[in-house]
Amino acid sequence: MSIAREYVDEVYKTVRARNRGEYEFHQAVKEILDSLVPVFEKHPKYREAGILERMVEPERVISFRVPWVDDHGKTIVNRGFRVQFNSAIGPYKGGLRFHPTVNASIIKFLGFEQTFKNSLTGQAIGGGKGGSDFDPKGKSDGEVMRFTQSFMTELCKYIGPDEDVPAGDIGVGAREIGFMFGQYKRIRGGFEAGVLTGKGLLYGGSLTRTEATGYGAVYFLNEMLKYNGLFMEGSTVVVSGSGNVSIYAIEKAAQLGAKVVACSDSNGYVYDPEGINLSTLKRLKEVDRARLSEYVNTHPNATYTEGCNGIWNIPCDIVLPCATQNEIDEESARTLVANGVKAVVEGANMPSTYEAIEVFLEHKVLFGPAKAANAGGVAVSALEMSQNSMRQSWTFEEVDAKLHDIMTNIYHNSVRAAAEYGHEGNLVVGANIAGFLKVADSMMAQGIV
Prior knowledge:
By secondary structure, this protein is α/β, with parallel strands linked by helices. Helix content is 47%, strand content 16%.
């Protein structure tokens, strides 16, 4: 066993010992560390400087209670988190997730991944993540407002335009961002537009931010297909999820000539052989906040199935998992391969298990890992920060063009890094290495901090 391999294994062993029971975090760390072995073999300076030991340890972990009162006068207490993982290349940047499954492990895995993802964008933003086990589903606007105001009352102590800039994630959309920004402004007594991204257009938001993650994933996919002699036009696509990322991935895929035949929510999935009707989907999810099962009420040729795993049994050319972590396991991956899938691009954070990724790579399925493929959201968030700093607003076309360039560059930088370190065609390795080098070199330059 090489010295580099022993070093990486020892760091991972320490991570597991220090973070017992945090399996999502373990998974994210192992996936990245395994791919960095060639870097430590070629550049012992990173090992000698203890870069990895510092990189796997967050700079700061904040946990706090969030008390609020529901519409019936009952006091509820949720738990809030913010993990400020790495600020070597810029202020912490990463979304807030409101979902019952949120815990320290999930927030740490997301923050760790965010460090590399943000580095890949080429922008000056570090890695962070946050959220709460609060579930906004089924809550009234008043309940969501009271919760988010309580959440921001504590979070505001740790964030700022040059310190830490949160954004939205699962369960945190325009409504939640608006309430949080209002509370931050109320407490601070000033209009600091750059403290949150994903804001409404009337008070400092950016055009294309809503579409950014979904569009970006498809821009990455399209570049990957072209590079390998394949095409979006005429392809059959399955997209998991039906939230913001999924909706705009479906929209952009359709614009590029693909037919998206299935999508899902937390209860089940819809299969529409005629292609998912985007107008209906947007009405159900963005206006009515309804369940996906209602789709079949207006589309009789479509079928709805309870449970989400069956969506991976649908034959297709391309898969865009855009729902949540670990939604594609090894068995699902083997089913997709058997059904002839050509490309898998991750729109969600870590939606494929380690074993599933191995199956895709083993069978030469083109695979776009999340930290590269879904970086469009944070890329446009950083563009929103730039506009806030300049007190300017760019057109939709300007932001979209910048997003397209960023995603294209991420793809090619990942391809080059993979080839340079002996893993040609493996974008998991390529993206991890490309993201790591910028952060590691910055940490080296700044000393032991």
